[in-house]
Amino acid sequence: MIKLKVVSDSMHPTIRIGNELLIESLSAELDTFDIILFKRHDKLVVHYVWRNQKNFNNSVITRSLKNIYADEEPVNYSEILGKVSNYKLSSLKKFKIQLYCLLRGCL
User: Fold this and answer.
1) In this structure, are residues 18 and 5 in contact, taking their beta carbons and an 8 Å threshold?
2) Contact criterion met (CB below 8 Å) for 100 and 68
3) For the whole model, what pTM was predicted?
4) For every residue of 32-74, which 3-state class applies, written as one string?
């Protein structure tokens, strides 16, 4: 298990600057809304999974909570360092994201 302190507000309000994250290695298939840690351009990034494309091109599409309407560039499974185990998106937050995206046509 890896422990990290958050230095960005991209997942605010679920994860705040200064919070400690517990990162577990991937032991199962990733699901929509799982929060993951990955390496992108020599930086560590924490976002939630929006689409799992493992069977298509071995990647996932992620989003931050700051911009729930925009897909980030695909993250290859080899770039994923683990899954955040001590924070999860609430059912209400998941519902709001899906509703907002449905209304804005970004599903």
Assistant:
1) yes
2) yes
3) 0.91
4) CCCEEEEEECCEEEEEEEEEEEHHHHCEEEEECCCCCCCCCCC
> Letter for the amino acid at 11?
M
pLDDT in tens, 85-97: 999 999 999 999 9
pLDDT at 52 > cutoff 70: yes
Rounded CA-CA distance 1/85 in Å is 10
CB 42 within 8 A of CB 53: no
Which tokens is 72 given? 């980030």
CB atoms within 10 A of CB 10: 16
